[in-house]
Amino acid sequence: MSGAAVYTAANWYLALRGAKHRKRSGNQQPSESDEPGSGLAIAVGALLDGIPESMAIGLSLISGPGVSLVAVAAIFLSNIPEGLSSSAGMRKSNRSAGYVFGLWGGITAISGFAALLGYISFQGASPQMVAATIAIAAGAILAMLADTMIPEAFDVAHNFTGLITVAGFLVSFCLSKLGG
């Protein structure tokens, strides 16, 4: 709950600053001329979405000899539609290709640093502390899915959103059983 509460509060604040529809693929994102500062809010919002996932990857290093392949696969697969949708919306709001690539390149670098920070910070931490941190990150990730990705999916898939969501969770569950 705490991860979801922190994510929701930060997401709400960014929505007030112009990042409300940062992951939408249509014409919902404001351009910088329509709402000054919205570009920065979108960038910070995208970073906010990536940090919990990156921390989970870093923490997965602690529990074993390497990064959990299942965690990386799940995060990678979830970020493809998220990135494509957000990028399409940015282009439709007249943001340049340089802005879009620069934004995602910067977020990739910062997210990689967050994974490293998660690994270094929790080295030697108790299993309970690692589990609590992963639970906080999971709450933030679930809140992000419910707030931003599911509404976008519903706009496109309508009646099939629930079935597609459950299929995604089933694939994640199966991958976790294969990995572990």
Summarize the model shown.
Helix content is 79%, strand content 0%. It has 180 residues and is mostly helical. The model has no long low-confidence stretch (mean pLDDT 75).
Description of the molecule:
The chain is an all-alpha fold. Helix 3 runs antiparallel to helix 6. The model has no long low-confidence stretch (mean pLDDT 75). 79% of the residues lie in helices and 0% in strands.
Order of helices and strands: HHHHHH
Share of helical residues: over 70%
How many angstroms does the end-to-end distance come to?
A: 26 Å
Class by alpha and beta content:
mainly alpha
Kindly estimate the percentage of residues that lie in beta strands according to DSSP.
under 5%
How many E strands?
Answer: 0
Question: Overall mean pLDDT score?
Answer: 75
Shape: globular
Low-pLDDT segments, ≥5 res = none
Q: How many helices does DSSP assign?
A: 6
The major pleated sheet works out as:
none
Q: What is Rg?
A: 17 Å
Present the secondary structure layout.
Layout: H1 2-19, H2 38-62, H3 69-92, H4 97-121, H5 127-157, H6 161-179
Helix pairs in contact: 1-2, 1-5, 2-4, 2-5, 3-6
